[in-house]
Amino acid sequence: GQNIDQPTEMTATEGAIVQINCTNQTSGFNGLFWYQQHAGEAPTFLSYNVLDGLEEKGRFSSFLSRSKGYSYLLLKELQMKDSASYLCAVLDSNYQLIWGAGTKLIIKP
Amino acid sequence: DGGITQSPKYLFRKEGQNVTLSCEQNLNHDAMYWYRQDPGQGLRLIYYSQIVNDFQKGDIAEGYSVSREKKESFPLTVTSAQKNPTAFYLCASSNQDREVGELFFGEGSRLTVL
Fold first, then answer.
1. Do A33 and B45 touch (CB under 8 A)?
2. How do residues B13-35 score in pLDDT, each as one tens digit?
3. Is the link from the previous residue into B8 a cis peptide, with omega within 30 of 0?
């Protein structure tokens, strides 16, 4: 079956670093995406990984290990505006996106 | 500015009524999608369209219908046959020239059935 697992909720402190994990068991793999979604708003694209390794984009980095079916999103120098849900999605063998339920990240001062 | 516009943002309907959610994009994207988002679950694909006058069922198409008469527009009708229609509905589009899976989303429509 298709399964994407990520923690339901995480809490972190402003200025700190947080790592949000995502594990996938899907039929095939053609890439992994991270999206950010503020409450009541549209998801917005953060990153795309198709090869193993770390992709860095400013304060946000995304890591992928295809053999382990594992990815993480790393957020550095956390700001209050980073409070949001972070959605992990895998592109399966049919090039369909399979979505995780999202991780709600709460940032405290 | 280019983007995707969904309307209405909030909608209430009585059981047994059909309702149509609007989705318009001026990004010149070929592909458009409808997703449903429920608490504690990942986005689930209802319908998608890769080109005008053609669309495909997603994972949870039962009780929904769509049309794609124009490139810019992809309305979703939630019919009375949909057993549990209360949800947050998201429309998205994508450009074939970008990474497959990089979607641009509308602001969503929250439907509540009374």
1. no
2. 988 899 999 999 999 999 999 99
3. yes
